[in-house]
Target: DNA repair protein RecO
Amino acid sequence: MRGGSYRDGAVVVRSHDFGEADRVVVLLTRSHGVVRSVAKGVRKARSRFGSRLQPFVRLDVQLYPGRNLATLTSADTVAYYGAGIIEDFDRYAAASAVLETAERVAAHGEDPALFDAVVDALARMQVSAHPVAVLDAFLLQAMATEGWAPSLFDCASCQAPGPHHAFHPGVGGAACLNCRPSGSAEIDEQTLHLMWLLAGGHVAAAEAILAAEGGGHLGAQAHRLTVAHLQWHLETTLSSLKVMEQR
Model:
């Protein structure tokens, strides 16, 4: 994108040092999708906004388009979501997965709804006792914005009404007895109900189910299915989700 400078809301996805004093900052913006930018001189001691350019910070930014990198000329902090996240491994890993997924999905273009979902997920992640459920809610909603959310009640292949007890991302989610392909996951119908709540943004209701369950079987199964569906459609494995599997 070329032309004059513009302002936009943004969340820092990641950054790395560039040259002697600059920093490359990858931003998820509300109206311009993913923007790779360079903040010049921010590693100098007298930099006005260098400390703000870190993940989990929501900014109001001024950007000037360039051939490969936009130039980040100002950044005002709107919200800092790191408190309550960076001190806790589970929250940090889940929040990192939110940002990585958003970057992959937003590569297809601008999506204000996706930006709002990221902001909502990070804010909820700070206080939730179930960060993985917050992550799964975001993943399901992000997939819906792309048009490949899983079917969670009717059979994804023949639309036979559920609930069903098989799931396979290759057919689009839940599958009936006649349509289930080889390798389908055997699932509890309550898992699909939990995923339906998360997909609809009813995170508090989903967290209540998880709190009552205690053991975490439904939540663990819902997470596995959600991640499998996401990575099937992205055709790649996300590093942040892989780290979570090693926990």
